[in-house]
Amino acid sequence: MEEDIKPDKKINIKGLVCPYTFVKAKLAVEDMEVGQVLEILLDYEEASRSIPKSMEDHGQKVLKVEKINDTDWVLVIRKEKE
Amino acid sequence: MDFTEDQLQRYSRHIILPEVGGKGQRRLLGAKVFIVGAGGLGCPVGYYLAAAGVGTIGIVDGDTVELSNLQRQIAHSTKTLGMYKIDSAKATFESLNPDVKIIGIKERISKDNIFDLIKDYDVVVDGSDNFPTRYLVNDACVMAKKSLVSGAILKFEGHVTTIVPGEGHCYRCLFEEMPPPGLVPSCQEAGVIGAIPGVVGSLQAIEVVKLILGKGDVLKNILLIYDALKTTFRRIRVPKNPDCPVCGKNPTITELLDYDAGYCAVR
Ligand SMILES: [Zn+2]
User: Fold this and answer.
1) Does the pLDDT of residue B60 top 90, yes or no?
2) What pLDDT score was predicted for residue B188?
3) Could you tell me the pLDDT band of residue B181, with boundaries at 50, 70 and 90?
4) Confidence (pLDDT) at A42
5) What CATH number labels B31-237?
6) Cα separation of B15 and B85, whole Å?
7) Interatomic CA distance for residues B152 and B168, integer angstroms
8) How many domains does chain A have?
9) Given this model, what pLDDT does residue B262 score?
10) Which of B17, B76, B187, B250 is the most buried (most CB within 10 A)?
11) Three-state DSSP string of B150-219
């Protein structure tokens, strides 16, 4: 069950806009091992769509995209490849 | 190495590329590139490599900036007329990117200093404007096993090729001997549109970046010919010549020669 996946790492990129949202997310993924899970908290709406798309383009797995309140989203990404 | 916030912003357009990422940017920051000449080709090569965050850039050039250079040598300016080109270029590149260390050498490159000059560098770029230097740099890079990105311009034509010793061709596989003195016009005699070395130098800079990143296909065994009047690029296959006098099986050139014999110095 995806809901139960415990992230290995969490980053908070609230306040950042593109492309720094993706820069931060990508660097976080680079520092992780394949199979590990990253949770991203953000408040820039465009990034809630562009980060999942870019992560998939780079071969990573998007496990969750969820709007958690009026301003914030949570993304959960599993690292599939280096 | 962790990036500073400034570096994240400066290199963000690299980091978001799958072929670069933080890992590739760290490689660029750790790389050392040596550029022969701070002229028409050396200026754009150095400019883009400095912008890319190539950590150490060595440049050798013994000339000073003249007004006639400024039509194409974009690292120099009206304010740096009379300065050594390497001092002028160093100031330009360091103000573009303070992450980059520029090592300027105020000398003419020769068979007596080249091995010492290139020994600490990962990649060599030839931006010289004359045959003796081009052959000197080729032979030295083959002997020292340094990757070399060679560029040349003449009138409306530009050449680029990447020499990876032990893997691909070298300049002598392509043109075994220097043309006789006097037969081939120098750039100074021939004239050039300033943006043409800009195109060729930019292509050289990209070859260097790919060599550092280990991504993509470089111009190994290929001569790229840019025809600016027709706006065409042609790729000529250049097989490694087993009988090449410098990189062949039984090389006849095993030490550096007197390359300048018969040639007058071209500035
Ligand atoms: Zn050869």
Assistant:
1) yes
2) 58
3) confident
4) 97
5) 3.40.50.720
6) 32
7) 19
8) 1
9) 63
10) B76
11) EEEEEECEEEEEEECCCCCCCHHHHCCCCCCCCCCCCHHHHCECCHHHHHHHHHHHHHHHHHHHCCCCCC
Task: Report CA torsion sign: B5, B11, B22, B141.
Answer: negative
Q: Looking at beta carbons, which residues of chain B come within 8 Å of A54?
A: 16
The vertex-B64 CA angle with B53 and B71, nearest 5°, equals 75
Q: What is the mean pLDDT of residues B202-219?
A: 98
CATH code, A43: 3.30.110.40
Q: Chain B partners of A60 at a C-beta cutoff of 8 Å?
A: none
Contacts of A72 (CB under 8 A, 6+ apart): A14, A41, A42, A43
Question: Under an 8 A CB cutoff, do A23 and B16 touch?
Answer: yes
Say what the pLDDT of residue B266 is. Answer: 43
Residue B211, min C-alpha distance to chain A (Å): 20
Q: Nearest to residue B18, comparing CAs of A61, A8, A75, A29?
A: A29
Q: Determine, for residues B21 and A24 on separate chains, whether the beta-carbon distance falls below 8 Å.
A: no
**Within 13 A of A16's CA, how many CA atoms are on the CB side?**
23
Q: Could you report the per-residue pLDDT of B239-265, keeping only the tens digit for each?
A: 999 999 999 999 999 999 988 876 654
The yes-or-no verdict on residue B93 having pLDDT over 50 is yes
Mean pLDDT of chain A: 93
Residue contact B16–A24, C-beta within 8 A: no
Q: Which residues of A are catalytic?
A: 18
Partners of A20 on chain B (C-beta within 8 Å) are 8-9, 12
For chain A, list the strands marked E by DSSP: 9-12, 37-42, 61-67, 73-78
Alpha carbons B121 and B31: distance in angstroms, whole number? 8
Q: For residue A8, what are the domain limits? A: 2-78
Q: Do B8 and A20 touch (CB under 8 A)?
A: yes
Q: How many angstroms separate the CA atoms of B136 and B148, rounded?
A: 12
